[in-house]
Q: What sequence folds into this?
């Protein structure tokens, strides 16, 4: 038996012992998780800076702070979430009670990506703990400092048979996917998501897939351009554009394209200076392969701002590219970097044709002061979630489910939705033994007549 097989079997043994089922146990583990993050806070900032050159501001707002908020919210509401939910019972079931019990899946696997290596490993873990599961975390090998820190933190804080970290490359992931797991939570690319789903289907293991896609940012001619430019700049270039819900491309009404470009240039310089690579606070690209892929896009279209790159430090300045269309290489896949192509439209109906090239994006952003147009975009375009007159802020509200649709993902999480993601809702009907309804049985003389009435 391999180490991974033994690990999974040990977690199954612990889960079957029922230790994770109680409210007291789960709350205690969430508190330990919270204390762990606080204890390691300085090293969290250090490791994320080493891996991705993340500024302390970015670590606080997009990684550490988010997790603190999520844990606090879960601790506050967990007792309520765990309670069986009573639902209505039809007249045909007189004397019975109908309830939905919240059952944990069992041994869960969390495969996390490199772009937010702490956030996207620990946020699903909060849901797994809250729902009463055990968990194996497989962090990305592309962010070695943070992955090693996650392993150290988890090893020091939790029993291996409850929560553990397994490091390694895709061969390790493949071995994990061969195990008799009870649930898989994956965040990453569409192509790898397909592999995860295929492997899970062989054992009928339920999955949540948080993927990505080309998220459009639409700016109509009545938008407030100063606000739009500021919010687009922030949403696009945080973490050097390596965000699954970053605006992937701009769809701008042709009448306001140049004024918007002018505003974007100003906002980039306000937030990141004229040369962000020299500021020391702009995130770097995760590895050479991703850097080379992004640089290959820079010879397409017309660079109207930025374009400077440094291979030694794997950095690319915020870049705006005009004269791009759907035949351009950068429009074939999610960009996942600090390059923002600009396309134009004249009528709202044209937007459909653009988005059809990369359907079901994870996010959509629409800037307009016209409520009818806003509602048109919300109702007529398929996307995972998004914002009107803002970018990526929907992630920060744990009352909103976060997840994709179609090629951008399956399932959702954040807040209570994380608890729900790691929970099977078990339907139970409790029948009375005080009496019995004779008409439900086939030998009842009046049964058919009564049932016909009740069903109507």
A:
């Amino acid at each position: 038996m391999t180490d991974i097989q033994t690990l999974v079997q040990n977690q199954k043994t612990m889960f079957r012992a029922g230790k994770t089922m109680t409210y007291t146990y789960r709350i205690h583990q969430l508190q330990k998780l919270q204390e762990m993050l606080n204890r390691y806070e300085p090293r969290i900032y250090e490791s994320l800076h080493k891996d991705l050159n993340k500024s302390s501001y970015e670590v606080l707002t997009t990684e550490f702070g988010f997790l603190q908020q999520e844990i606090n919210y879960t601790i506050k509401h967990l007792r309520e979430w765990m309670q069986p939910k009573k639902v209505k019972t039809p007249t045909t079931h007189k004397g019975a009670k109908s309830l939905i019990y919240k059952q944990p899946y069992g041994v869960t696997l969390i495969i996390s990506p490199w772009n937010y290596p702490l956030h996207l490993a620990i946020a699903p873990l909060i849901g797994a703990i809250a729902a009463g599961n055990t968990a194996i975390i497989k962090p990305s090998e592309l962010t070695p400092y943070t992955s090693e820190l996650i392993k150290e933190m988890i090893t020091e804080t939790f029993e291996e048979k409850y929560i553990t970290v397994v490091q390694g490359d895709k061969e390790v992931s493949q071995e994990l996917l061969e195990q008799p797991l009870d649930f898989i939570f994956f965040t990453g690319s569409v192509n790898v998501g397909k592999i995860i789903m295929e492997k899970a289907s062989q054992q009928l293991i339920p999955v949540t897939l948080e993927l990505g896609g080309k998220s459009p940012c639409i700016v109509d001619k009545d938008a407030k351009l100063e606000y739009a430019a500021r919010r687009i700049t922030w949403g696009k270039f945080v973490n050097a554009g390596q965000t699954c819900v970053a605006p992937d491309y701009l769809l701008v009404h042709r009448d306001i394209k140049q004024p918007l470009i002018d505003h974007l240039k100003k906002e980039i310089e306000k937030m990141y200076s004229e040369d962000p690579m020299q500021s020391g606070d702009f995130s770097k690209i995760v590895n050479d392969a991703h850097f080379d892929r992004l640089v290959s896009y820079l010879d397409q279209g017309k660079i109207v701002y930025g374009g400077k790159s440094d291979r030694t430090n794997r950095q690319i300045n915020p870049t705006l590219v005009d004269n791009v269309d759907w035949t351009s290489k950068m429009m074939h896949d999610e960009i996942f970097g600090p390059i923002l192509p600009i396309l134009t439209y004249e009528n709202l109906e044209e937007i459909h044709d653009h988005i059809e090239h990369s359907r079901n994006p994870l996010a959509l952003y629409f800037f307009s002061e016209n409520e009818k147009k806003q509602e048109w975009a919300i109702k007529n375009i398929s996307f995972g979630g998004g914002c009107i007159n803002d970018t990526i802020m929907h992630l920060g509200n744990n009352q909103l489910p976060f997840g994709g649709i179609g090629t951008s993902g399956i399932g959702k999480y954040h807040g209570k939705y994380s608890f729900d993601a790691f929970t099977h809702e078990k339907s139970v009907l409790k029948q009375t033994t005080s009496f019995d309804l004779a008409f439900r049985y086939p030998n009842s003389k009046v049964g058919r007549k009564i049932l016909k009435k009740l069903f109507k």
Remarks:
- The longest strand covers residues 97-104.
- The chain has two domains: 4-211+409-428, 216-395.
